[in-house]
Design a protein that fits this description.
about 400 residues; 8-stranded antiparallel β-sheet; 5-stranded antiparallel β-sheet; about 0% helix
Amino acid sequence: MRKNNSLFNRKRFDDFDSFSRPTTVLQENTGDDLTKIADRELIVNDNNELMIRKGNRIEKVSGQSITGKDGKDGTPGGSGAAGNSAYVYIAYASDASGTDFTMTFNSALDYIAILAADTEIETPSASDFTGLWKKYKGEIGQSIHHSEFTSTTAVSGLPNEPGETDTYTVWGDAGETINLGTFTVYNGDDGTDGTDGSDGASAFVYIAYASDDTGTDFTTTFDPDLDYIAILATTTEIVSPIASDFTGLWKNYKGAAGAGGGGGVTYVIKATDEAKSSNATPADDNTLKFTTTANTKYMIIMFIGYTIATSSTLKYLFNHTGTTTSWRILELSLQDDYGGDLRYNLTNIASTYTRTNANNNGRLVVGAALLDVGASGGTFSIQWSQNTSNTGATTFRAGSYLIYKSL
């Protein structure tokens, strides 16, 4: 027997006994043999379950459900707002008003300021950091100059009595005007002597350098051009170490330059003294120089020891034969009496500096610089001579050195 199962949907807005909101209703057609249920309605509830309603009675149709089609995708959202650039600047100064302002770390400066901005500052100045200065180094504490024995007092009630205590006064200066307080020491009885320890073994440590892990270019003298090091500890003395003594111990202690990180650190060490007399024309030092590459930035650190004969003088400067885009140096010249001069040069690489001396004591120049090489490379060097020609020698000492690294 054929049934006409044609169904159609319509929305109902009347509330049924067990339904909370309008439901989809399927009304059966009244054709053919379905006239006997024409007064029933097929209803889909909120859980997509098929129900039959007749009058006020609603029954669930077992095992039946209807699932609707997926809705269409919503309209895509618009693009978000453009992000802001972020810049962070760190500066240093000697007080909260920005005195001695610099963007380069200096351990002698007690104040720091950190500025976060969404606009680039090409050449920051102290005024950009107004209100941001913070002192990040604490005050230097009072040091102890010496302690002085004050008195000895007999005491009881202590282990191994009778005993005694010694009292000491602690002073903060040589004139004993700053009293930092006292401390007391209980003098106990001497302890029992300990047993003798075992005889120690002789210990010898040898350090060697080479250009590879087989000991090529072997030497026991430090050479910055050699990348491998070996350390041998032994209880037997080796009078004349050779490469085979270090077999299996070689390690590459210098890493390769990182990508985009520039070259490795290079040391230029002065092996022998260099003296000049009756000479007032600055010229390149025999050792303290290196070749630069175009369009490259260099970090340079120098440590120069020198002596000046009685009534003699020194004149020195820094020279670059290539194109110098910019030059910055922080330089300290120290005297034997712990005095000295500090200069911070931001522009002229060829600025000269002079020193005089009334005796033959030592001097020291320490500096850190940034050299920005332009379109052509050349030679960076320390040039020096006597400031006034004199028969007394002015000498750059062995052991002086340059350290440089391309950035």
